[in-house]
Amino acid sequence: MVRLTIDVIAKSRNHFKKKRGLSFPEYLKTLTHLHFSSKNIEDIGDLSMCRNLTVLYLYDNQITHICNLGFASNLTHLYMQNNNITHIDNLFNLQKLSKLYLGGNRIAVVEGLENLCELKELHLENQRLAPGEKLLLDPRTLLSVAESLCVLNINNNNIDDIRDLTVLKELQRFSAADNRLNNMEELEDVFSHWPQLLQMDLSGNPVCKKPKYRDRLITACKSLVVLNGREINELTRQFLINWKASKEAKKKKINKHMITGPLIPYPLTNNFNMGQGPHPGHSYSKANMQRWYPQQSLRSSIIVHTDLR
User: Fold this and answer.
1) pLDDT-based confidence at 285, cuts 50/70/90?
2) Which of 64, 121, 246, 263 is at 20 to 30 A from 46, Cα to Cα?
């Protein structure tokens, strides 16, 4: 098993370039970037001497769990994509972490990010999940990063519901390509809560086959600049917004007319001495109709009663 330790760093020609007058321990204290991608690393050992580490590259390895990073309180970028990680653990001390790359692992539930109040980018694409399994995002984790997260990538994770993502009001870039999103109304509602959204990719989802899906998403996301890799023309956006507003106004007018419009009352008589009026559905002679409604035109279907004394 290859374990990343201080000794491994010391043996690496790419890292230990001894500065004049500095011992190796002193050099480690000045180290800010650590590059150990594609080294068959399976575990992270004690790196606490690298107390000023800000960027750690560990992608394309065989790491199964995140550990021994509690010392890295200055870490801002963590690259651990394409490993064998199944759970997001032991990140609670990384309160300055800004970018987290965990794509291509085996994560089924996104959690454990509650202390990452400065997290701006979260990359979770292409998790290697069991058949029929989909990536789940813990609502508590989402709420904890809602005020900071600007970029979210959840491509190709069998996701069919994103309503829990509504709280991410600061999102500017959202990628959810090659999932199972199909509910247009749900998407419109979620996106209407993201006023900062500039770029979005939903390509490869069933919803993209629905009529006018692009037009509907453009009107739902008024700040959107790029959708599925295609730029949005501002004139087109304004036309669609105006068209939608006009359509909704017309619909409201029709509904209002249906509620407050004229009603046809049950035929009544204003002569209480005449007895029962005509029975609906029967045919009557002109004389009978004049006997029941002597003061009304036979052509009128609406009877106005002015005197019921």
Assistant:
1) low
2) 121
What's the rounded Cα separation, in Å, for the pair 52 and 47? Answer: 11
d(CA 40, CA 288): 102
Every domain of the chain and the residues it spans: 2-233, 266-309
Among residues 54, 40, 52, the alpha carbon closest in space to that of 97 is found at 54
Q: Is the dihedral of CA 166, 167, 168, 170 positive or negative?
A: positive
Task: Say which CATH superfamily domain 2-233 falls into.
Answer: Ribonuclease Inhibitor (3.80.10.10)
Helices (H), 78-233: 139-144, 184-191, 213-220
Q: Would you give the DSSP letter of residue 11?
A: H
For 186, the token pair is 């749900």
What is the rounded CA–CA span in Å between residue 46 and residue 64? Answer: 16
Taking the C-alpha atoms of residue 214 and residue 209, their distance in angstroms, rounded to an integer, is 10
Structure tokens at 76: 């801002």
- For 79, list phi and psi in degrees, rounded to 5: -110, 105
Distance CA 157, CA 132 (A): 10
Distance CA 158, CA 125 (A): 11
| Beta carbons of 129 and 103 less than 8 angstroms apart | no
Paired with 230 in beta bridges are 227
Backbone angles phi, psi at 121, to 5 degrees: -130, 135
User: In terms of Cα–Cα distance, which of 84, 148, 82 is closest to 115?
Assistant: 148
How many whole angstroms separate alpha carbon 80 and alpha carbon 90?
14
Q: What are the tens digits of pLDDT across the range 170-209?
A: 999 999 999 999 999 999 999 999 999 999 999 999 999 9
**Dihedral angle sign, alpha carbons of residues 233, 234, 240, 244:** positive
17-39 mean pLDDT:
83
The residue type of 114 is E
Rg (CA), the chain: 34
3-class DSSP state of 122: strand
Residues 201-245 have pLDDT tens digits of 999 999 999 998 998 898 888 899 999 999 988 777 777 667 666
